[in-house]
Design brief:
Strand content: 15-25%
Structural class: alpha/beta
Oligomer: single chain
Shape: globular
CATH superfamily: NAD(P)-binding Rossmann-like Domain
Number of strands: 13
Strand order of the largest sheet: 3-2-1-4-5-6-11
């Protein structure tokens, strides 16, 4: 299979490309390699993909929010399916830099839908987010729940992406699958996410910021489990059969939660990090941050039923794997 992967220099994009190359697929990566976080980490991921993939990996250093340039860069390249993972990430960053989300998450998503339509691809899988559930109090979060009350601009853009996708599935019968990821972590993870921030601070003897005074719960999902769900989705396009799909559409458009189906107390993760780092954490308790949700918890019944998805990695296994990688990557 020939797969176009946006965000190939990113955490999930890199991890997906690694697995696709390992099973013999050809990967075209698209990434503008911006400086939202340390570019050296992104370049290290890309170097690893180039070494692994050889002539089966092609990288386009392209901003996919620029449609004419994107189309031009793809000329002469063939691909069967798309996994659109590239986006401007981060709930808190969206509070201070809203226009970055307008271009990357809204224009960028529309551009990939247009590419998929005109290239008549077999299937496009795209990244949504558990953030779309906003302030929902019903737990666990189900793809059948209403998600029209986002508490961050980031979440609003991801909900908008789902709506645009539904429109393209209706108008052009384009097979689409949206994946709502729940708190992804693991080796090669992002420096702006909690797992990295806490590990770095504990190792350096600095305080860690714990919001809502520690009363936080997250459905932490290990990267290998996330990628298993992405590939299962990629390999199984939704049929255009008029039947209701996960998420409620009768078009060839499905929505799935990909989580661990466990809502873990944040302080339990801190305890594991302390044990793996060999140091006690100095905790700086802070109030709830704007745009944050107190708890996330994925109902994964739909993707388990349709695709056999079964996460296997608990935080007791996954967090030590991240810390081990972090130490190796940073030469500690």
């Amino acid at each position: 299979m020939k797969v176009l992967v946006t965000g190939a220099a990113g955490f999930i994009g890199y991890s997906l490309a690694t697995k696709l190359l390992a099973r013999g697929d050809t990967v075209i990566g698209v990434d503008c390699v911006n400086d939202y976080y340390d570019v050296r980490l992104k370049e290290a991921r890309l170097a690893a993909l180039a070494q692994q993939g050889g002539n089966r990996f092609t990288l386009l250093r392209q901003d996919f929010s620029d449609y004419p340039a994107l189309v031009a860069s793809l000329q002469g390249l063939e691909f069967d399916r798309i996994v659109h993972l590239g986006a401007q990430a981060g709930v808190r960053y969206s509070i201070t830099n809203p226009h970055a989300y307008l271009t990357a998450n809204l224009a960028g998503h529309l551009n990939l839908l247009e590419v998929a339509r005109h290239r008549e691809v077999e299937h496009m899988v795209y990244a949504s987010s558990s953030s779309v559930y906003g302030g929902n109090t019903k737990l666990p979060f189900s793809v059948e729940d209403r998600v029209d009350q986002p508490v961050s601009l980031y979440a609003a853009t991801k909900k908008a992406d789902e709506l645009m996708s539904e429109t393209y599935a209706h108008l052009y019968r384009l097979p689409l699958t949206g994946l709502r990821f729940f708190t992804v972590y693991g080796p090669w993870g992002r420096p702006d996410m909690m797992m990295w921030i806490f590990t770095k601070a504990i190792m350096e003897g600095r305080p860690i910021p714990v919001f809502n005074h520690g009363d936080m719960y997250r459905d932490f999902t290990f990267i290998d489990d996330i990628i298993a769900g992405v590939i299962a989705s990629l390999d199984n396009p939704p049929p255009d059969d008029g039947k209701e799909k996960a998420g409620g559409s009768t078009k060839p458009h499905r929505l799935y939660n990909i989580g661990n189906h466990r809502s873990e107390h944040l302080m339990k993760v801190v305890e594991i990090l302390e044990a793996e780092c060999g140091k006690k954490a100095e905790i700086d308790y802070q109030p709830m941050q704007p745009g944050d949700a107190r708890q996330s918890f994925a109902d994964i019944e739909a993707i388990s039923r349709d695709l056999g998805y079964k996460p296997t990695t608990s935080i007791d296994i996954g967090v030590p794997k991240f810390v081990q990688w972090y130490k190796e990557y940073n030469g500690l």
